[in-house]
């Protein structure tokens, strides 16, 4: 590493597709990284509260909310370490609804209004299922422990029934009947413990998620790689160099997945599943970074976020990332 390399901290969770960047196999040109492998909840809290890292994984919803507000001191590069479909994230008691359409008029618990998974789930309810936000009673609380609070300023839409329960948790309220549904990225403790009193609404959620992809072209982006704005103001070249390094690390991970000479992951027939998914998503879109390959997902999410009051003004994909990174990666 050159003596005059820029020293930057990078906090990100443990993903195979960032492993070669974190362990130094893939360098960032002109940068000396100090990698920090932390849980996402800790990363989000420490960055949102204290701006503790130069570069980090960040909730996509929290990021777009910050961008929509004045004097935002954070930017990002179009690298998306976590993507998860969310039709699996609706939990009910065993005697509860068996169809997503039955949620209308019920009490639904969420960990945060501005949780990325919640934004996608509410967008799915509103635009695909046909249930307006105003047809649900929304209750915010920690999933398994009380005390969880919103981390960004919100603009709750007029007519939406939203309350916070800081002294309760979603898991207990679902079991007691105070809630009819829990909608959360992290499953309630009762689900994780195999409690027969609770279940998912959509047992075959993979089919629902597959159909959602074919219908909408949305492959939900959960997290983005955020950068302190001051870092790029002083060193604008860092954005592209970081992007290239993340792209190279991801390419190496995908190559491991398709390796036919050895089993790189502890999953039988992993190559067979990888081939099937490549057919579904396209050979060039398996896990894409950049703006244009993700425009449908990004634009849909920004529409959801504004309609739900997570962002304070309408945003376009170009508002989220430095121009230099956008213009260099076209489909």
Topology order in helix (H) and strand (E) letters = EHEHEHEEEHEEHEHEHEHHHHH
The CATH superfamily of the largest domain is identified as Periplasmic binding protein-like II
**Average pLDDT across residues?**
95
Residue stretches low in confidence (pLDDT < 50, at least 5 long) are none
Structural class, by secondary structure, is: alpha/beta
Explain this structure to me?
The structure is a single chain. This protein is an alpha/beta fold and 331 residues long. Helix content is 36%, strand content 18%. It has 12 helices and 11 strands. A 6-stranded mixed beta sheet has the order 8-7-6-9-5-10, with helices on one face. α1 links the parallel β1 and β2. α1 packs across α9 and α4 (116-129) packs across α11 (295-307). The two termini are 33 Å apart.
List keywords for this structure.
6-stranded mixed beta sheet, alpha/beta, 5-stranded mixed beta sheet, D-Maltodextrin-Binding Protein, domain 2
């Amino acid at each position: 590493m050159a003596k005059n390399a820029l020293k930057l901290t990078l906090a990100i969770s443990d993903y195979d597709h960032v492993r070669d960047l974190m362990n130094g196999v893939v360098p960032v040109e002109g940068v000396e990284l100090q990698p920090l492998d932390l849980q996402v909840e800790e990363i989000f809290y420490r960055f949102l509260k204290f701006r503790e890292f130069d570069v980090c994984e960040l909730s996509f919803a929290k990021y777009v909310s910050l961008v929509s507000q004045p004097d935002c001191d954070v930017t990002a590069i179009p690298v998306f370490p976590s993507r998860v479909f969310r039709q699996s994230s609706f939990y009910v008691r065993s005697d509860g609804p068996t169809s997503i359409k039955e949620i209308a008029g019920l009490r639904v618990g969420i960990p945060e209004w501005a949780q990325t998974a919640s934004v996608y789930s509410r967008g799915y309810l509103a635009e695909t299922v046909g249930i307006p936000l105003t047809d649900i009673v929304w209750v915010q609380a920690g999933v398994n422990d009380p005390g969880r609070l919103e981390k960004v300023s919100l603009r709750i839409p007029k007519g939406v029934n939203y309350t916070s329960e800081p002294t309760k948790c979603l898991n207990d309220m679902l079991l007691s009947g105070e809630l009819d549904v829990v909608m959360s990225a992290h499953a309630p403790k009762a689900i994780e413990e195999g409690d027969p009193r609770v279940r998912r609404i959509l047992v075959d959620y993979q089919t629902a998620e597959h159909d959602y992809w074919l219908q909408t072209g949305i492959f939900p982006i959960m997290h983005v790689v955020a950068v302190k704005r001051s870092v790029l103001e002083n060193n604008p070249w860092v954005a592209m160099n970081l992007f290239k390094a993340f792209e190279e690390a991801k390419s190496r991970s995908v190559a491991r997945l398709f390796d036919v000479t050895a089993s790189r992951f502890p999953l039988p027939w992993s190559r067979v599943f990888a081939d099937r998914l490549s057919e579904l998503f396209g050979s060039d879109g398996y896990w894409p970074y950049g703006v244009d390959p993700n425009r449908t997902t990004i634009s849909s999410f920004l529409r959801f976020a504004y309609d739900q009051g997570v962002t304070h003004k309408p945003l376009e994909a170009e508002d989220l990332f430095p121009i230099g990174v956008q213009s260099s990666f076209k489909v």
